[in-house]
Each structure stands twice: as C-alpha cells, then as structure tokens.
Amino acid sequence: MPNISELLQTTTLDKVDAKVLLADLINKHLGWPKSSLISRDRDSLPQALLDDWYELEKKRLLGHPVAYLIGKKEFFNIELSVAPGVLIPRPETELLVELVIDFLDSAGYQIAAPKILDLGTGSGAIGLALAKNIPGSQVTCVDISPEALAIAQKNATLLGLNTVQFHQGSWFDGLTDQFDVIVSNPPYIPAGDEHLSMGDLRFEPSSALTDHDDGLSAYRYIFQQAPAYLKKDGLIVVEHGYDQSEAICQLLSNGQYVDIKAHLDLAGIKRAASAKLG
C-alpha cells in the first residue's frame, strides 16, 4: 500500500492543495493530526482512504475548490462548513469584520448589545465571526437562498452561537428592526466578466457572485433602503470589487450618508467602503 510520502511525491496536484486534502483524509479515516504528514509519512494507508484520495485528486485536477472537497474553510478565527450552495469565504472579506469591530470599539460609540445585520450571509462567515468576537452582540443573518441559510444555521450551531437570528428573504424584506451596523458582501461581479469562468468561481453559486447586471445593482438597492433600518450614526460597510471603489463611494455620497471611507485590503487594494447614517 502507498504511504503518505509516496502519495505526495507522485501527485500532480499543487503541493499545498495535496497536503490539505491528505491531512483532512487521514484525520477523517484514522484520527491522525496534520503533523502525521511528517511524523507518519512512511506508514501504509488503508484502501478506503486511498480510494477517497484518488477521487479527491481527480476532482481537484478538474478544478473543484479545495474548500468544497473537504467541506470547510477557516475565516477570521472560526472554522466554517461550506458546500457548493454557498460562496467560499475569502481572506479579504475579513476586512469587513475588522472594520465593524473597530467601529464598535471606537471611543464615543460604546454599545452594550449592538444590533448587527449581515445581508447576503452565505455560509454565515461575516455575521458569525462578529457574533463570536463581539460579546453581547445581537446578529441577524439574511439570505435569499434556503440552502445557504441552512449551512449558516449549521455553522452557528457548531460554533455554539445560539443567539444569532436567521431570516430568509431578499435583502431587507420582512425586517422591522433598526440596527447599529449593516454589513454586506453582495454579488458584485458584472455579467459577462471573464473571471466568472475561471478558477473556483466556476463552481460557486452564480447568485453569490454576479448581479447579472453592471455589478452595482445590489449596492444601489441596499444604499437606498438601508436608512430605514440603520440607526442614526450607525455604520454601513460593504465589500466590493477591486475596481469599484470610486463608484461605490459615489453611490454612498448620493444618499443620506456621511464620513464615507474607502478601505484597503492586505494587498493594498481598495476592497471595502464604509459610511455612517447622517
């Protein structure tokens, strides 16, 4: 039977991807930790594990995302279950979590139990990361997709975040509360963009990626409707595409918003915008 070392040496997969997939398999089949990739690399592996490995290897070579193949993805400081029905959380989206935390921690805006609305929650990444890191927060996660919402609810249960509320609907439909923070990573890739047929995006739900329009339609709607659901001086913060910062800030300036800011991700790209309700 092949061992770990032999599998990693003979695979044509990217070495990082191969190690992630194999570490997940040996943990599921044998209960071995990730360190076994080194400490037990000469041990023979059971046939059932090898069968799963060759199947995952084949799928990854066809382009299937690693996160879907292992069924999980780390985000901020939590681990999330993911499946093809939800967008795979990206590291750049962690910027939204940081901006909300900084806002609520800032002097002059101390709220004991901040109410936070996560629009288009998907796997629950943003809303659940905020609930985990802001004690006493009251988080509501909204998504139009019942499949996505089921995954988000599963993640909340696994993380022990039992106070998070979930609502199925399109953006603000059916909501009546006012919130201290509204946060969203809406679909922003324009229809026909070549990126939609590249990499992981080929396998992710198109409704989470593109508005099937110019990439800005979700922002127009959210910014127009948000004042009815956002408390005065409350924060709205959104992620957007690498080339959309100017357009997003312009849309915000046409509304009832003040203190409009663009924010850079770790790569130095303008990736998010925030504003307060005046």
Explain what the structure shows.
It is a single chain. This protein has 278 residues and is α/β, with parallel strands linked by helices. It has 2 domains: 4-62, no CATH class; 85-277, 3-Layer(aba) Sandwich (Rossmann fold). The chain is built from 10 helices and 9 strands. The strands form 2 sheets. It has a 7-stranded mixed β-sheet with strand order 5-4-3-6-7-9-8, sandwiched between helices. Strands 1-2 form a two-stranded antiparallel sheet. Helix 9 links the parallel strand 6 (179-184) and strand 7. It starts with a helix and ends with a strand. The model has no long low-confidence stretch (mean pLDDT 95).
Could you give the order of strands across the largest sheet?
5-4-3-6-7-9-8
Shape: elongated
How many separate domains make up the residues? 2
Named at the architecture level, the CATH assignment of the largest domain is 3-Layer(aba) Sandwich
| Uncertain spans | none
Residues in β-strands, percent? 15-25%
The fourth-level CATH homologous superfamily of the largest domain is Vaccinia Virus protein VP39
By secondary-structure content and strand pairing, the structural class works out as: alpha/beta
Here the CATH topology of the largest domain equals: Rossmann fold
Number of strands: 9
Task: Profile the largest sheet.
Answer: 7 strands, mixed
Number of helices: 10
Order of helices and strands: HHHHHEEHEHEHEEHEHEE
Q: What Rg is obtained from the alpha carbons, in whole angstroms?
A: 21 Å
Q: Would you state the CATH class of the largest domain?
A: Alpha Beta
Helix content: 25-40%
Question: For the terminal residues, how far apart are their CA atoms?
Answer: 67 Å
Query: What is the average of the pLDDT values?
Result: 95
